[in-house]
Structures are given as C-alpha cells and as structure tokens.
Input
Amino acid sequence: MKTVLNLKVDKALKVQAQKTAADFGIPLGTLMNAFLRQFVRTKEVNLDLTYQPTKYLADIIKESRAEYARGEANGPFTGDEFIEHLKKL
Output
C-alpha cells in the first residue's frame, strides 16, 4: 500500500532536484523513498554540508588571512566590542 507525503519545498529547489535525479536516471520519488528507507534502517541522517565559497568570497578570505598574518587585523572581539569598533570607523 502506498501513501502520499506532501512536503513544502522551494519550487526552484524541486525543479533542480528533479533535474539532478533525472541526470542519474532516477525519478525524484524513487530517490526520496530510498532516502527514507535508509533513514529508517540506520536511524541516521547523513548530509554532506561541504560549502564552497564563491570566488569573490574566497578572495576576501584570502585577503583577510594575509592581513591577519601581517598583524594588520583588529580583534578578536566580543559582540559588543565589535559593534563599538564599527562605530569608530
């Protein structure tokens, strides 16, 4: 016996997920069923949360690390100290 599981997801995310699943030759429903079976079987949720920054952000991080290495960085700050520091700029 089958049932319907209704989820609210961002429309663009659903379309992207359907396309990605199709690229693997798997309907999205089949993929979600496999995920739920694994979740029930292992009682674990395994997500790869690897984040790749944009080139712009990677450049800023690189610049910040260089400033820190040269001793040009301010801080570390508590939240309140940081706000006070920003007010002085």
User: Anything to note?
Assistant: The longest helix spans residues 28-42.
